[in-house]
Amino acid sequence: MRYLFLLLFAALSTTLYAQTLTGEVREAVQQTPLPFASVSLFASGKTEPVQAVLADSTGRFSFASLRNGRYRLLIRSLGYQSFEKNDLEIRGATHLGTLLLSPGEALLRELTVTGQKPAFLNQPDRQVFRAAEFQSARGGTAADVLKNMPSVAMNSQGEISVRGMSGFLLLIDGKPVQGDPAFLLGQLPANSIENVEIITTPSARFDADGKGGIIQITTKPGTLDTRAVQFNLLGGLPSTNDFGNKDKPVRFGGDASFQYKHGKWDLSAGGAYNRYDLAGRREGDVWTKIGNRFTRFPSVGERSTRKENYSLRGTAGYRISARQTLKAGISYGVRDEYRRADLTYANTTTDLTTGQLIGKADYYNANLVRKKGTFLLADLDYSLTFVNRSVLSLSALYEQDRFSGFTQNLNIRTPESRDTLQYTLNTNVRPLTGYRLKAAYEIPVWKGMLESGYQFRSWQEDGTYVYLEKEGNYSPFGTIPGFGGNVRVANTIHAVYSQYVLKPAQGWSVTAGLRYEDANRTLTTDSSGNRLHLQNLFPSALVAWQWSDNWQLKAGYSRRVQRASSPELNPLPEREHSETLEQGDAHLLPEFVQLAEAGVVRNLKKGSLFGNFYYQHVRNVVNRVNSVYADTILNRIYTNAGQARRLGLELGLTLNPTARWKLYAGGNIYHYRIQGNLFGGAVANSSWVYSLNVNSGVGLGDGWNLQLNVNYLSRRATAQGEDSRFLTPTVSLKKDLMKGRASLLFVWQNVDLGIWHANEQRITTRGKDFFTTTNYIYEKDVLQLQFSFNLNKKVGKFTEAEFGDREF
Length: 808
Fold this sequence. Notes:
Elements: H1 2-16, E1 19-27, E2 38-43, E3 49-54, E4 60-66, E5 69-76, E6 83-90, E7 93-101, H2 105-114, E8 120-123, E9 126-130, H3 142-146, E10 152-154, E11 160-162, E12 169-172, E13 175-177, H4 181-185, E14 193-199, E15 214-219, E16 226-236, E17 251-262, E18 265-278, E19 280-290, E20 293-296, E21 299-319, E22 324-351, E23 357-385, E24 391-412, E25 420-445, E26 448-471, E27 478-479, E28 485-502, E29 508-525, E30 529-548, E31 551-562, H5 566-569, E32 574-577, E33 580-583, E34 591-604, E35 607-619, E36 622-630, E37 633-640, E38 643-655, E39 661-678, E40 681-701, E41 704-713, E42 716-717, E43 721-723, E44 726-737, E45 742-749, E46 760-767, E47 770-778, E48 782-790, H6 804-807
Parallel strand pairs: 1-7, 12-15, 33-37
Antiparallel strand pairs: 1-4, 2-3, 2-5, 5-6, 8-9, 9-14, 10-11, 12-13, 14-15, 16-17, 16-48, 17-18, 18-21, 19-20, 19-21, 19-47, 20-22, 21-22, 22-23, 23-24, 24-25, 25-26, 26-27, 26-28, 28-29, 29-30, 30-31, 31-34, 32-33, 34-35, 35-38, 36-37, 38-39, 39-40, 40-41, 41-44, 42-43, 43-46, 44-45, 45-48, ...
């Protein structure tokens, strides 16, 4: 009988202490997860917590081994008001769902004064910007949103830089993308974006790739028990100046999305199509010296682009239990781009010894480049929360892409002539296959959260390149030894990491971590091959202190790497156009970067102000440089040019002068210096560079809103020359319809009116035996209309390419 009593008592005790409590912490404005929030549970009427934990990196938390009864829940996070839930009754397994933390006093004032969500939130490890604030980007792509961020700049070629560095890691809803961000951002619809987050000193849990840090794009979330539908239609008005190009520019597109979220299911699907042509003109001047021969060949003519993208995406999420979630995604996309450069050349050759003209020829170069890529990828994610509040996360991604393209380079006497002087044809086909596996484990330790993980990445690209050339009308195509063949590039990376997030006292947050990577890169051609094996440590640290509602300080450090893409490694030459031969370097080394910063945030009565001092040091800096190949051809190659350093300051201001007027301004100024060796000679160049991004919106009443955007990038130094300034102003006017469910938007891009030389940029390089300068003049005063219908303004999250976009 005594043993039976003990058995019953043990069973009763187990039942009493077997209760659990779970939930998820999000911020109330953007409704994005708040990682590592402090969560404390108190017995009713007590001042000491029964248990205290940190939420994990996705904002989830759990308590185990609780007794039945009433409790008080308290949640704190830097920059947000405390959340308190009293009279919380726990009976069995209790799931609280999503708990929202309101912004701190300064942001709350902004919400009260304007009745709108703030444009900017400053968290300890990142800056968060609402995409909806930049209405001129609606109907466009993610690149149109991103170029408005502070310290982000876009040049005339569509290249995006952060704090002056063009390489950065792009995350889409936490998924890293192995590719050139500019190509991917040109495919993702701006209407699907909720926030843009800039992480300039990333922690060890993130991939080490990206010398400029990390840009994360979060797509619009769904809400429980909803069916969401959204679609947008975009049309371009006739061009105001097509420069007499061969074809009239065409601009139209649309996107649609659907989401169903109910109970344990979260389903979403979406598709987009976009056609965006841009007329343009190119003015260039080049000279070369070979021996005593001086050749000059200025040119002028068309430089237009045609871009076409379409994509389909779908995701399915299932909450297995309060502790387990499963999510799968699949997407397919096609990107097709043409670049036409039809130029008239005036070629003269002079004897430097005598000064006499020894040759003269005028000719017309018809040049057409096509790039096409198809992308298919699938991913699977699983998360399990244990009773000890630790979290196991598993993820897998598979990607299969196919890239292809050609360059047609035809030299003839005149545009009307049929007399071929020279015809060069380059083609390429490059299938790519990639895999990514990751396992991570988080566990509460003392007053913080310890996370460790392993990641495996592998991607391989097999390229077939054809180079054909002929002289005259009737001669057959011939090949040139070393100018065509097969190139295989294979990459494998094993990584392990560990980081600790500590919140030792109210207002303090400390993160320290270390990442180890073992990377192998193998490149094989028809005649040779090489292997690069690197082992590296990537430390990181971040300290943040909020000593009042209005002041916050932070300091951080991170070591990063920028790996070379397959085009940068391809040693086979390609005729880019009449005056340029382009090739990569099979022995190109990765760039290694050290990033450090210290910053302050000041919350104002009607807005906020932030400033960050930063330092960047790049080893093995990669530049695309020129040398003389022939009298009328420059050889453009990728090479490691030495070391580079940036020392700068970025500033950002959000202000609401009145209830209807909202102003955002971001600026970045830095000193850039590069030192090294090129072609046996010393390289030393430096300059001050600055960029400005200004957004000002005014509510006109009755659903009307007027907005002005100005993006300006100053002149900047390169390894062999400089790039001129670049200006792109935009004006937009929006009218809300159907009680906010629909809207009509008019956008005036590249505002110029013949005054400001908008949307044009001059790029100049020079060496001891050559000089080249090219002015790219793209279409100005572009007019567009967009109609949007949004049933309840919620769309889903999608997966983007891990490997392919950069190779495209």
